[in-house]
Amino acid sequence: MRSLLMTMLLIVVVLIIYSNVTGGEKGTKKQLVQAGTHMQDRIRSMSP
User: Fold this and answer.
1) What does the DSSP assignment read for 11-34?
2) What separation in angstroms does the CA of 31 have from each of 17, 26, 27, 45?
3) Angle between the 2-22 and 28-45 helix axes, to the nearest 10 degrees?
4) Is the N or the C terminus of the chain less surrounded, counting Cβ atoms within 10 Å?
């Protein structure tokens, strides 16, 4: 029973850490969107 509880607690902690790293104000997803937007603007501003 104790090992099951510890396993569940570990899974919950990993999920919380994952959601905080990928989401949020400074998360990975937001940084990827910002980097993509920046690259898109740079490519558009290049003169042929």
Assistant:
1) HHHHHHHHHHHHSSTT-HHHHHHH
2) 17, 7, 6, 21
3) 20
4) C
